[in-house]
Design a protein that fits this description.
four-stranded antiparallel sheet
Length: 180
């Protein structure tokens, strides 16, 4: 191989490594934004270190703001459920409202209703649900059932830069709402 071909191969290799590093950074960046806007609630589970034993269900609440919505729209590797429900963020009906996405999985038989959700002092109503009722898994759910639900609450219950309590029935988790 000539000296010029070796330089070309080296240059292409460096560019490819830089590109894959950039793509990895973009994915990590989106995952970081998701993680800082998510709280997980275990229903009837007992924590044992990093494990949860005997849980009936798990629910993850994701707060969708402009930063996360933009990151999801610009990342082709974003999960489909997140892309689909994040589209609500640009809806004009959500002015002065905060958007949340709840992903849940029944581990044992579990009874779920959206009215069980509270964001701070606000109790979610049917009018707050953005997901079509045809696509919601509610009621008595068998083990391994999963669902995703988008809903909005008045923005005054989600103050930026503060911790809020998210409850699902008698179980709750805390979310630190990002300032930006």
């Amino acid at each position: 191989m000539t000296r010029n071909k070796m330089k070309l191969v080296l240059l292409v290799s460096i560019l490819l490594m830089g590109l894959t590093g950039t793509l990895g950074w973009a994915s990590n960046s989106l995952q970081g934004k998701i993680d800082e806007r998510t709280t997980v609630i275990w229903i009837e589970g007992t924590a044992l270190g990093d494990m949860v034993i005997g849980s009936r269900a798990q629910a993850a609440f994701v707060y969708v703001d402009g930063t996360l919505s933009h990151a999801v729209a610009s990342d082709p590797n974003a999960p489909e459920w997140l892309k689909w429900h994040s589209n609500h963020y640009s809806d004009k009906k959500l002015k002065n409202r905060a958007l949340f996405i709840m992903r849940y999985k029944a581990i044992k038989r579990w009874s779920f209703s959206p009215e069980m959700i509270r964001i701070g002092e606000y109790k979610v109503t049917d009018d707050d649900i953005l997901t079509s009722k045809d696509f919601m898994a509610v009621g008595e759910l068998p083990p391994d059932s999963t669902g995703t639900l988008a809903f909005s609450v008045p923005a005054k219950y989600v103050p930026k830069g503060r911790n809020i309590l998210i409850s699902l029935g008698d179980f709750s988790g805390e979310l630190n709402v990002p300032k930006r």
